[in-house]
Write a structure and sequence with these properties.
The structure is a single chain. The chain is an alpha/beta fold. The protein has one domain: Beta Barrel (Barwin-like endoglucanases). The protein is about 25% helix and about 25% strand. The chain has a 6-stranded mixed barrel. This is Expansin-like EG45 domain-containing protein. InterPro entries: Expan_Lol_pI, Expansin/allergen_DPBB_dom, RlpA-like_DPBB, RlpA-like_sf.
């Protein structure tokens, strides 16, 4: 088969396959902003962790969004800092303990633990609870949640 030339349009086919492959991988990693996703979420047990976020907000982070409802997000959501200031609505899937409307958080930090996509402030974590269940929710430590991108507010890294 030496000397055989590929089909003249072979390079176009290879290029098209490559473009669709890259587009598919890109969309599966970034996902759909308006789509509801499922993950697990935990909370910051130490308030000082809130002040050292990777977005550079420092002590301003607590005052930036809804009384300190802030979050550290997994690398796929944090996007090398491009995710700083993005807001997400999340609701706990345990309807016996959690309110249907859930809570909203703003990304202020990078979450490098592999157990959850978000680590949120205890204030945001408890905001998902039905009245009287706040402490019981904290005792669980990790919750299964539905989440999606919320609103268009985005502060960006400092």
């Amino acid at each position: 088969m030496a000397g055989r030339h590929p089909h003249p349009h072979h390079h176009l086919l290879v290029g098209a396959v490559l473009i669709f492959t890259i587009a598919g991988v890109s969309s599966s990693v970034s996902g759909c902003d308006s789509c509801v996703h499922q993950t697990k979420v935990s909370y910051f047990s130490n308030a000082s962790a809130l002040l050292s976020g990777a977005c550079g907000y420092g002590s301003m982070a607590v005052g930036l969004y809804d009384g300190g409802r802030i979050a550290a997000a997994a690398p796929a959501i944090f996007k090398d800092g491009a995710g700083c200031g993005a807001c997400y609505q999340m609701s706990c899937k345990d309807t016996s303990m959690c309110k249907k409307e859930g809570t909203t958080v703003m990304v202020t930090d990078l979450n490098t633990n592999n157990q959850t996509h978000f680590v949120i402030s205890s204030r945001a974590f408890m905001a998902m609870a039905k009245q009287g269940n706040e402490r019981n929710l904290l005792k669980l430590g990790i919750l299964e949640v539905d989440y999606k991108r919320w609103g268009s507010r985005q502060v960006g890294p400092l």
